[in-house]
Amino acid sequence: EAGVAQSPRYKIIEKRQSVAFWCNPISGHATLYWYQQILGQGPKLLIQFQNNGVVDDSQLPKDRFSAERLKGVDSTLKIQPAKLEDSAVYLCASSLKGQVWYEQYFGPGTRLTVT
Amino acid sequence: ILNVEQSPQSLHVQEGDSTNFTCSFPSSNFYALHWYRWETAKSPEALFVMTLNGDEKKKGRISATLNTKEGYSYLYIKGSQPEDSATYLCALSGGTSYGKLTFGQGTILTVHP
Known about the structure:
With 115 residues, chain A is mainly β. Chain A has strands at residues 5-7, 10-13, 19-24, 31-37, 44-50, 53-56, 65-69, 75-79, 88-95, 105-106, 110-114. Helices cover 0% and strands 49% of the residues of chain A. In chain B, β4 and β5 (45-50) form a beta hairpin.
């Protein structure tokens, strides 16, 4: 079974530039999550999709971050414009269902450096 | 807002040593406790999902226990090997959850040959 795919793996941009990350979840997984992990902290949920609908985006900085999940499969996360504090690893995860006891499978992440 | 705390923040052990980490969480609104291992440049890997008070799970040399009444979980590694070097994350599902995980800050384990 193929795992969660993410690209790019690494990205370096200057502040005020835009950047987009892509995620392809495990086939058949209805729930998709984007987490942000800042150095020294645990991952923090940015947005959760159930199929192509948003379930939770309460911690997404909506003035600069946006995300979509096309046709309930792939997802993109965009930052426009980027700030220095956006430097982090962005993790995508998927699960069969969005329930508390279901295992979440993570991709390798995209490491973003904003200079 | 759930607050998940892990200790210690980092740990250095010698190959062959046994070690353990702690994950503390509020005992109310508990649904499930997840442990992940995250090696550098790789995907976080799920180790255990535990839901019941008193749960004990084992995977090879790694085991975990759960006490939901007092709000903690222990992760044990027996006979640490250099390949066990990683960040160990615990995460809680609780409250108004649709599977959302609230993570602790992680314990960085380094096993020296």
